[in-house]
Amino acid sequence: MVTLPQAQVRIAFIVTEDWFFVSHFLPMLRAAKELGLDVVVITRVGKHRHVIENLGARVVPLDIERGHLGFLSIGGSISKIARTLKREKIELVHCIALRSVVTGGLAAMLGGVRGRILAITGGGLLAADGSVKAAFGRFVLRSLFRIIRSRGKSHFLFENITDPHTFGLDAADENVTILGGAGVDPDYYAPLPPKSGDGLKLAIVGRLVWSKGADLAVEAVTMARERGHDVSLSLFGLPDPSNPRSLSVETLRAWSDLAGIEWRGSTSDVREVWAAHDLCCMPTRGGEGLPRSILEAAACGRPILTTDVPGCRDFVRDGCEGWLVPADNSAALAERICALALDKASIAAAGARARQRVVQGFTEARVMEQVRDVYCDICNAIGRAD
Fold first, then answer.
1. Which residues span the domain enclosing 105?
2. What is the reported pLDDT for 1?
3. Cys-Cys with 283: which of 161, 216, 324, 331 at CB 3.0–4.6 Å?
4. Residue 227 sits in the same domain as residue 330
């Protein structure tokens, strides 16, 4: 481990929401604190400020707008962040998720911050969409990334091997690191025994937005039940009002009126979810980094039924830790569900393999180790470490 100088390096995490930082990125905060960095978190403050401050970081409230990555919508955020970085005398920024990477990266240039860590946690539908509009958006982002990289020292963090290419980078570049998502604690998410009882119970845990494919799971489970299989689906999570493709409460309630489908709202402990369910279902349409929800389920010994898209396929090998089906294809999803309903033994075996894969490389400890190395490299590059 590099010894940092007596005068602390001040790092600012830039992230849109405090809850998102707390749910996924506390290992990175701990890594920074272990190195003796002076940590500031610039974010929109909700209900989680105390969690961040209890870990020794200082929270700076900032209204970072969410929505489309248009120049008019991000211009105000860039100016606000740049002023904050200058006022706080920040030497190193760690920008989390695509919007913060763009606004925070450009603000760091304006604010004279030489060290920049840019963590792209998935490209959303901008990465998954094949339309001309999405292609133009990717071109614009690649151009912005070239500008951000043109000065100072930048390092990109990705959660799968496809996204670097999507945004004009090379996964093998020395300034690119592929993380195992946000990582999970395999001691906290301990392996659970197979669920007792008959029937196949699937669960989806996460934000209830169109891109996650909950509608496809509802259709697939309904088809499987119509074919006579005893299968059910539980939806855990809430709509996201800031997302233009959020599912509505009315839709979720209507689904709950269907046989075998139940919207359960949010959950405070996903271990209880997986104790009561056989299988994690993640029928995303794409644009993921590496969903934490599948790592949590896998650590608990539950296999993953997901789509063959970047991020998900970086963890799940078809027939090993779970099963991959084509994206946006409820019929293929239903076929796999029907097959699994007749083969509970394969579910238990895949769950054990999923747990082992987490332990071998997708833990918080591993992510912390990788991030510490990046922090030290950046500090050395900007002349603030011995």
1. 10-183+363-381
2. 45
3. 216
4. yes
Assess if residue 339 is contained within a domain.
yes
**Residue 292 half-sphere exposure toward CB, CA atoms < 13 A:** 19
Whether residue 267 contacts residue 297, with contact meaning beta carbons closer than 8 Å, is answered with no
Q: What size, in residues, is the chain?
A: 386
pLDDT per position as a tens digit, 81-111 = 999 999 999 999 999 998 899 999 999 999 9
pLDDT at residue 198 is higher than 90: no
pLDDT for the residue numbered 151: 78
Task: Please tell me whether residues 354 and 239 are part of one structural domain.
Answer: yes
Q: Is residue 43 part of a domain?
A: yes
Q: Is the same domain home to 157 and 211?
A: no
Tens digit of pLDDT for each residue in 126-147?
Answer: 666 677 887 887 888 888 888 8
In this structure, are residues 187 and 208 in contact, taking their beta carbons and an 8 Å threshold?
no
- Residue 342 and residue 262 share a domain: yes
Q: Is the dihedral of CA 307, 347, 193, 201 positive or negative?
A: positive
Single pTM value for the model: 0.90
Assign residue 103 the CATH number of its domain.
Answer: 3.40.50.2000
Whole-angstrom Cα distance, residue 236 to residue 60?
Answer: 31
Q: Is there a domain that residue 348 lies in?
A: yes
Nearest CA among 259, 306, 296 for reference residue 275? 296
C-alpha distances out from residue 28 to 106, 180, 181, 224, 250, Å: 22, 13, 12, 42, 38
Whose structure tokens read 């979810």? Answer: 273
